[in-house]
Amino acid sequence: MPKNHHQRTLIYNESDLTGMWSEILEEFADSPSQAKVARFLLENGFGVNDDGKVVANGVEIPATHIAHTIGSDRRVVDATARRVLSNPALAAVFRNLRSTPDLSRVGRSLGLSVITVIPRNAQEKGIVGAVVRAIVDHDLGIRQIFVNDPYFSEEPRLVIIVDGTPPAVLYEELRSLPMVQQLII
Q1: Handedness of CA 154, 55, 70, 29 (dihedral sign)
Q2: How much is the pTM?
Q3: What is the chain's percent helix, strand, coil content, to nearest 5?
Q4: Domain over 103-184 is classified CATH 3.30.390.10
């Protein structure tokens, strides 16, 4: 690792998460426990504020709660947050992370349907587009889409919440897409 690694500045566009993930892996290569914390923060949209505290949309989350959840120690969580802020590229990412409500767990209670697609290869292009086209072709309103990035998630998936109950033929069409390994409804 270069001596001046904290002085690098990386700029990421929306499609270049590999650069960001590489930067995170490099920064935390010497500390698997801190890498675990950083990954947990990213997966959950938790940021780090200017005071070095973990936050969800500006609301502070005690380090002890995070540590307990991931089987770590609060000092590791605090050290990870401080380390994130010491790296300008990572600080720019983690200061701007936001959590988003996930309707997939409450969709049915709201009269919505949840469609989960497990891809054959999550890095293949066009998965989201093909699934969305099939849904739109059936004149269904899409309320929410979540895609787990293959760089951050061990089990990447596409979750789409739609209005009402889709026709059975839609499920058949989705299952027949070459990039779909499994469909969960």
Answers
A1: positive
A2: 0.70
A3: 45, 15, 40
A4: no
